[in-house]
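User: What would this chain look like folded?
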Amino acid sequence: ILDIPEGTVMSRLHRGRRALRHLLVDVATDRGYLRGERAA
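Assistant: Here's the prediction, encoded as structure tokens.
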């Protein structure tokens, strides 16, 4: 469909998931769902 290498797509998905995980850990820690600095 798109003329983009598969590796580029996989890399961007990985980076996006990692960024989302960090944001969610920050929110969860602020709200008291997680303890400590970073759980991920």
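The helical segments are 6-30. If you want, I can go into more detail on any region.
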